[in-house]
Amino acid sequence: MKEHSERTAIVTGAAQGLGRAIAETLAEQGAKVAVLDLNEERGSETVQGIVDQGGQAKYYSCDVGSSAQVDKTVAAVAEDLGEPLILVNNAGVTRDNLIHKMTDEDWNQVIATHLTGSFNMSRAVQRHMVANRWGKIVFISSRASQGNRGQTNYSAAKAGMLGMMRTLAIELGPFDINVNAVAPGHIDTEMTRATAARMGMSYEEMSELGMRTHAIKRIGRPMDIAHAVDYLVSDRSSFVTGQVLFVSGRVG
Length: 252
What we know:
By secondary structure, the chain is α/β, with parallel strands linked by helices.
């Protein structure tokens, strides 16, 4: 039997990049995956890719920053696929700028998606986990949680997710619910490539700069993150909670 057989997983922001890799990996291990995203075309492509490989998945359009949409979507997932006992809070956007150029909209959209979205999703899904006395929540944070030029909003949101993660680990631990985070470094995704374009450099130039600080001399791949998440939502990590796993190719 596959490791996640008979379990329902929700992955937010699963239309592309890290979210898609995570959704595909969990499906390969038997999970029924709810693919949440606002991009219906690409979200449906993720679902079709999973189904083509013999897995189970369904797409749901959901703005995670809206508690009403989240509650409605989680209820639909429970009815369609079964009670969700695995949650990966991955949905995110970037609106990079130096603080004197950062607008209210830049700040609010990033905070709403990353931080408020993770809160809304965790609050809705934990009800099912507590009732079943088992669950796994993984936050996709970032090495930028330690601070990064031009990312006041993003860094604050990713750092806030870590505080939320540790608090939920304390609150939900008595119900056998593990709550952890993965903090990626430079990973080759559409979002990272878009960041290079906004910085006015080629992706190759950006990658070369990043690898100068890497102990492992390559750029990260989405599957590097997916494998870390797969471990944290498995029974193999049953005594691991409140932890941040840095997956960055760096030391420190």
